[in-house]
Sequence to fold (513 residues):
Amino acid sequence: MAIAKKKVTKPIAKKSVVTTKKVSAQKTENPSSDDFWKYAPAPESKDHVTLKEKYDLYIGGKFVKPNSGKYYETINPASGEVIAKIADGNEKDIHLAVTAARKAYDQHWGKLPGKERAKYIFRIARMMQERAREFAVIETMNGGKPIRESRDIDIPLAANHFFYYAGWADKLDYAFPNAKPKSLGVAGQIIPWNFPLLMAAWKLAPALATGNTVVLKPAESTPLTALKLAELIHDAGVPEGVVNIVTGFGPAGASLVNHPGIDKIAFTGSTPVGKYIQKAIAGTPKKATLELGGKAAHIIFDDAPIDQAVEGIVNGIFFNQGHVCCAGSRLFIQENVAELVIRKLKQRMKTLIVGDPMDKNTDIGAINSKEQMDKINQYIKIGIKEGAEIYQPECALPAKGFFCKPTLFLHTSQSHRIVQEEIFGPVLAVQTFRTLEEVIEKANNIPYGLSAGVWTDKGSKIFNLTTQLRAGVVWANTYNKFDPASPFGGYKESGFGREGGLHGLYPYVSLQS
Ligand code: NAP
Ligand code: MG
Fold:
């Protein structure tokens, strides 16, 4: 017995020491030390990714050089490294793309039966699933978001959007009974940098399902997954000119908006550019959907499941670096639980891992660009100057790239700029409230109206709030949940029109009553 005991205990003790050492080179073996509990690095491999040095425009089913002959460098915001050179498209390229889209619409795609269009869209979805890992890695390399998010949210959701709308393509008469839905023609689509592939999917899938052809302009800082999507669309055998992708800067987007050959503009981006687009198309027959900025209220009542609510708050503002239009960036806590919620929130913030987005343990990756980093830092300074109390957990940030600690501002009020303006970073402004009426008034007292979150045990309170909050989406006892079948869109300066679900078909058809 004694020998057996010796044999059993010794290797176990030894093994546990070895494991501890493996976890981290600098780790102490003392479980009461903070270092003891740190995760070992778990970087995702880039080996299976193939990227070209230079990317051209995708027009009329071919990769073509930009008219200007110019290319710009796209970087990895986590390291500053140049990943590839991207064609700088201009007005002439946009014209070629719109012409190709019109030709494809008139000659082929506009006449194709829904069930045939569906086959192509299904194929895109299937191929995206097959190449999901590659897309996820490229999204993270180019955008800075944690690989966990690209892998588990962006890419699967993008594929699901194609699946979902492929299903509608031959059922439009059921979607709009007795209304004889007809496609519009050529859709111009402009997307931002925070969900590059997902936004491309939100735009392309309903447009193609309803029989329109497309010219898509990705954001200047995150063009790579859209260009990979161009390759995929090409491989899927989608007829030439049905999807055209023109990379470039703001002026390329403006040329698309102003081109007389488009029938519709679908834009996701900032409110100032959305306003510019609305002015530019006023008086033209062009239809528009504008998905713009947000400043969501996240409301925690005293009867809420507090631990889950804290997790919801963290998910709502800190994951994806707060680069989410519907980020829960204004937190309202009922006064009698405020101390408890803030204490738990601070504790949770201390455990968030900020760093290499390619690491599977990372919670907060890189800020997308220097421009955005400067903007966030500017707002942090404004918050301090306005007299709000700042809290940031102690954590070391990587030496290279653009990173920001999760940031809490306490004792804020409705008049603070950090409460009223969209920061688009991991910065949360906290206020307290006493009554339901007070929080509804405060939550609605803002130019935006994209989304909101409510945490409470009472169903009646949820229903009351969902009818009174001026927000396109209200999540209850959860946050940031998306599904291709449910519509998304805003009120007030967050724009108009809906994407997703049956509602997402409507902006791409004309109906006869
Ligand atoms: P942005 O600066 O407005 O840019 C969006 C897109 O518009 C980019 O492709 C941009 O090109 C292009 N663009 C710039 N100027 C233009 C012009 N004059 N005419 C036409 N297009 C133009 O927005 P962002 O900074 O990329 O994205 C962040 C914003 O998007 C935030 O406000 C966020 O709330 C909003 N957003 C909203 C939703 C939603 O569903 N409501 C979803 C995601 C993001 P460049 O990249 O070359 O500037
Ligand atoms: Mg921009």
Observations:
- The chain has a mean pLDDT of 93.
- The domain at 297-486 is CATH 3.40.309.10 (Aldehyde Dehydrogenase; Chain A, domain 2).
- The CA atoms of residues 183 and 509 lie 5 Å apart.
